[in-house]
Amino acid sequence: MIRAIEVVWYILSTVTWLSSGAGGQHVCWQALLRCQEEKECKWAYSQYTTACDSFLKGARKQCPSHCIGALVKLNQTHSGPDLESCDCGQDAQCRRAKRAIEPCMPRRYRADSADATDLGCTEARQRCEEESVCHSAMEDYLSNCGQLFNGRRCTHECRSTIQYLLSIPSGVSLNTCVCDGVERPFCEVVKDNMHKFCSINGQTVFTAGPGPGPGPDSEENYYYEDYDINKTDLKPERSGEADTRTSGSPGHQHQPRPR
């Protein structure tokens, strides 16, 4: 019986990604109980605890993309958003766990300056879409780089498209931006694949992470551990569909974008 209580308490205290504060409508343990009563939320929460366990325990220094993705899916359920606005109250264990998961939150990155190197990728993409030349180059990128998105290889046509995109001022910021928002997990996957497979003039483009990866013509097929991205899932959003929820709530998941 004591062991069962300890397990339940551990689960309640690991609602760590939830935003606390006086403005919270519910205490976290109540929000979690409501989630457990909803089939979709209960399943998504289970996926979250599994995906984020190694990071919460300190076994990984960087938040894995599948943990971020699990948070996004959890917040798409009916009861999931309540978890984000709940209040830990005086529960020190809940607050510690909440601080631990903070780096995984798929929030919009707000730059403190207009410097392109200080932009979130959501903002960088939107700026590119507002310019006809950059927008056209991005659509060519989506059409020509399907194998790259799925972690297979960077074709000559794809590399040429990227090179042209980087020659456009608004396209350059896609290379230096910080992955953010609900598209963060997909952005990081694409950037990681770019780093592994694409190089122009001996330099990696859209870099993500240290060290060289397999060359673009490598016979090795690399598959990301959590996502199999199809280029049809990367179509640009229509005007007005940009992410407007910037308080930390993933909300409705948007389609991933090139970075």
Automatic annotation (TrEMBL):
User: Which species is listed as the source?
Assistant: Callorhinchus milii
User: What biological-process GO terms show up in the record?
Assistant: regulation of cell cycle
Q: Where in the cell is it found?
A: Cell membrane
- Show the ranges annotated as biased composition (Acidic residues): 217-227
The keyword Glycoprotein appears for this protein: yes
Q: In what ranges is there compositional bias, type Basic and acidic residues?
A: 228-244
Its primary localisation, in coarse terms, equals membrane
- Region listing for Disordered, in residue ranges: 208-259
Q: Which InterPro entries match?
A: GAS1 (IPR039596), GDNF/GAS1 (IPR016017)
**What is the designated name of this protein?**
Growth arrest-specific protein 1-like protein
Per the record, a Pfam family?
A: GDNF
- Answer whether the UniProt record assigns the keyword Membrane to this protein: yes
Give the signal peptide range: 1-24
Indicate the segments forming the GDNF/GAS1 domain, all copies.
28-104, 121-198
Q: Which UniProt keywords apply?
A: Cell membrane, Glycoprotein, Membrane, Signal
Q: Which PANTHER family match?
A: GROWTH ARREST-SPECIFIC PROTEIN 1, GROWTH ARREST-SPECIFIC PROTEIN 1-LIKE
The GO cellular component terms are: plasma membrane
